[in-house]
């Protein structure tokens, strides 16, 4: 078959088993392909005749400007994540390639992680666990290290997308006064300008996408605005609150603790000082990795691939390109 009669050529990049990938996508009627080698050259070779791409949630096989140039037939990229920072959006938009994400699919999972991590830091649960496992019994030291009730702590949320909205709901249900900052002000909730929000937040939860505007947003100057002994929870991207700025705030005492699911470099180097910091809760970028969230993401990705094959508009396009995907 040729032209419009040919099956769509779908390149699937996540590091999943081939049988699983083919089982998910071949029934949709697309011709499923995987890169022969998971490196830059392998990606570019596989992109040479790809029409559609399911992106790599690890970020290793990024769809950057060079990848877009290597893909003359590419018409659609579906990211199996909320974040699209591994895609060069300018290059893709200029080429007329629509990009969709999995908006809202893991909002509950990520918000629950942020809430649980805050409780962990507030009560020094992981610290106490390490002490007891090492043979100590820090019953008297626990309160001095940090054991605070959450109910009256002021919570600030940066970003009011699906995740931020769910974070606000969970903390408010727990009795915390919550305010937010977002690039777009909502009709409900307590809005504060960003510096005011930071300065009045005992707990600051980052839920923003990583964009050129948000990269480095929480630098050392902004983190220094936090009340003494505040907590930082990052479920967004490491580049928004750079590791060095977080370490400076921790070592200076401005931050009493930080819960990090994301880092400047993933995974962080084995000798990274965050790995050794007593007051940091570390997580391997898995805040959204619940069974429910994964099923939601798979469903959204498959639905959009099916929409392309069947000639219907796709959902959740995040760049200014027509959601009705046409061959290039």
Describe the protein in words.
This protein is of the alpha/beta class and about 325 residues long. It has 2 domains: about 5-105 and about 290-310, 3-Layer(aba) Sandwich (Rossmann fold), CATH 3.40.50; about 105-280, NAD(P)-binding Rossmann-like Domain (Rossmann fold, 3-Layer(aba) Sandwich), CATH 3.40.50. It has helices spanning about 20-25, 40-45, 65-70, 90-95, 105-125, 125-135, 140-145, 160-175, 195-200, 220-225, 245-250, 290-310, and strands spanning about 10, 30-35, 50-55, 75-80, 100, 155-160, 180, 205, 230-235, 255-260, 280. Helix 5 (about 105-125) packs across helix 8 (about 160-175). Helices cover about 35% and strands about 15% of the residues. About 40% of the residues are buried.
Named at the architecture level, the CATH assignment of the largest domain is 3-Layer(aba) Sandwich
Low-confidence stretches: none
Integer tally of domains: 2
As a percent range, the share of helical residues equals 25-40%
Structure annotation, total helices: 12
Quote the CATH topology of the largest domain: Rossmann fold
The major pleated sheet works out as:
6 strands, parallel
Give the N-to-C terminal Cα separation.
16 Å
What general outline do the C-alpha atoms trace? elongated
CATH superfamily of the largest domain: NAD(P)-binding Rossmann-like Domain
Query: How would you classify the helix and strand content by structural class?
Result: alpha/beta
**H/E order of the elements?**
EHEHEHEHEHHHEHEHEHEHEEH
Rg is: 22 Å
């Amino acid at each position: 078959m040729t032209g419009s009669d040919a099956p769509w050529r779908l390149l699937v990049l996540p590091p999943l088993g081939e049988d699983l990938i083919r089982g998910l996508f071949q029934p949709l009627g697309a011709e499923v392909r995987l890169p022969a080698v998971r490196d830059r050259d392998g990606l570019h070779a596989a992109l040479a005749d790809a029409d559609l791409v399911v992106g790599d949630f690890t970020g290793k096989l990024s769809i950057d400007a060079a990848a877009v140039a290597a893909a003359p037939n590419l018409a659609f990229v579906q990211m199996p994540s909320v974040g699209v920072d591994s895609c060069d959006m300018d290059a893709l938009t200029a080429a007329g390639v629509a990009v969709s994400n999995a908006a809202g699919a893991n909002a509950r999972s990520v918000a629950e992680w942020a809430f649980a991590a805050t409780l962990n830091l507030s009560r020094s649960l992981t610290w106490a666990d390490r002490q007891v496992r090492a043979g100590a019994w820090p019953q008297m030291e626990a309160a001095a290290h940090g054991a605070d009730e959450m109910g009256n702590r002021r919570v600030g949320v940066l970003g009011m997308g699906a995740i931020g909205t769910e974070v606000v709901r969970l903390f408010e249900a727990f009795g915390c006064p919550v305010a937010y900052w977002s690039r777009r002000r909502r009709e409900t909730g307590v809005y504060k300008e960003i510096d005011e929000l930071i300065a009045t937040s005992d707990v600051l939860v980052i839920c923003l996408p990583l964009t050129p505007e948000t990269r480095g947003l929480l630098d050392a100057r902004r983190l220094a605005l936090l009340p003494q002994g505040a907590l930082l929870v990052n479920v967004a991207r490491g580049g928004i609150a750079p590791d060095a700025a977080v370490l400076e705030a921790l070592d200076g005492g401005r931050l009493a603790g930080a819960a990090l699911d994301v880092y400047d470099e993933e995974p962080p180097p084995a000798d990274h000082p965050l790995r050794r910091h007593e007051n940091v809760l570390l997580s391997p970028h898995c805040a959204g990795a619940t069974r429910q969230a994964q099923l939601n993401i798979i469903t959204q990705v498959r639905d959009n691939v099916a929409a392309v094959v069947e000639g219907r508009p796709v959902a959740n396009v995040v760049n200014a390109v027509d959601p009705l995907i046409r061959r290039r």
